[in-house]
Amino acid sequence: MNTLQAIVFDMDGTLADTEDIHRQAFNLAFGEFDCDWQWSRDEYRGLLAISGGRERIRQYLAGRRKGDDAQLAELAAAMHKRKSALYRELLSGTGIRLRPGVERLLREAAAKSVRLAVATSSSRRNLETLLQTTLGPGSIGMFDAVITCDVVEEKKPSAAVYRRAVADLGAAPARCVAIEDTRNGNLAALGAGLRTVITTHAFTIDNDFGGAALVVDQLGEPERPMRVLSGNPGGAPCIDVALLELIVADAGRPGSRHTAAASTAE
């Protein structure tokens, strides 16, 4: 029987509800660059289909500013650099907490010698800020592999970031589970051969998560059980190591009870 070797977490929207903080930082940066753009929640929800903040700005600029590709790319990079600094400032001052069940699962996995990794399109500095704010100094050391856009530039839905995470862990993809929150993240992890558990939120609830083992509203706590949107957790109230072991063991079996049907399209 397959045994769970590792859990690989996405960052934004998965470890913590950071997406609206990103949106606020984008809007602040636009103002500093004398742009009258203000991304609403609804508009930002659609823009999340583009992985990577710099790429998001670059595509938005293309239809609104004149200039050759090099000029627009340079402006997008400058905007994104300032946006990232503003994001970290906001993050440090929000009192943000990890999403329900995240810290519980991290500590349980570590206690049971299940390896941990992060695979994100965000930067290491952003990740360090989030972890220091929520778990304290040095908490990035909980993870055996940390793959960010500083390591792998290719963005999700490319499987590159997950392939690198699994390689750095020295693990077999089929014995790893990715915790994700977006369609692009789900596709990236599946493309690298991992099983996926999706924790949705307001910005991704309507994404298509076909192929995911489970789709839930959060990882859950004993006093705050998860709500299952797709898949069959066998009555488990939370995502824990035992459930992830079952998902890995079930991988590849015909009619697997843990494979979620596709949800409504984006």
Summary?
With 266 residues, the chain is of the alpha/beta class. It has nine helices and seven strands. Helix 4 runs parallel beside helix 6.
Task: Please characterize this protein's 3D structure.
By secondary structure, the protein is α/β, with parallel strands linked by helices. It has 2 domains: 6-17 and 97-250, Rossmann fold; 19-94, Orthogonal Bundle (DNA polymerase, domain 1), CATH 1.10.150. Helix content is 41%, strand content 11%. The chain is built from 9 helices and 7 strands; from the N terminus they run βαααααβαβαβαβββα. The protein has helices at residues 19-32, 41-47, 53-62, 69-94, 102-111, 124-135, 160-169, 183-191, 241-250; strands spanning 6-9, 115-119, 145-147, 176-180, 195-199, 214-216, 228-230. A 7-stranded mixed β-sheet has the order 3-2-1-4-5-6-7. The longest helix is centred in the N-terminal third of the chain and has 26 residues, at 69-94. The radius of gyration is 18 Å and the shape is globular. The relative contact order is 0.16.
What order do the helices and strands come in, and which of them pair?
Elements: E1 6-9, H1 19-32, H2 41-47, H3 53-62, H4 69-94, H5 102-111, E2 115-119, H6 124-135, E3 145-147, H7 160-169, E4 176-180, H8 183-191, E5 195-199, E6 214-216, E7 228-230, H9 241-250
Parallel strand pairs: 1-2, 1-4, 2-3, 4-5, 5-6
Antiparallel strand pairs: 6-7
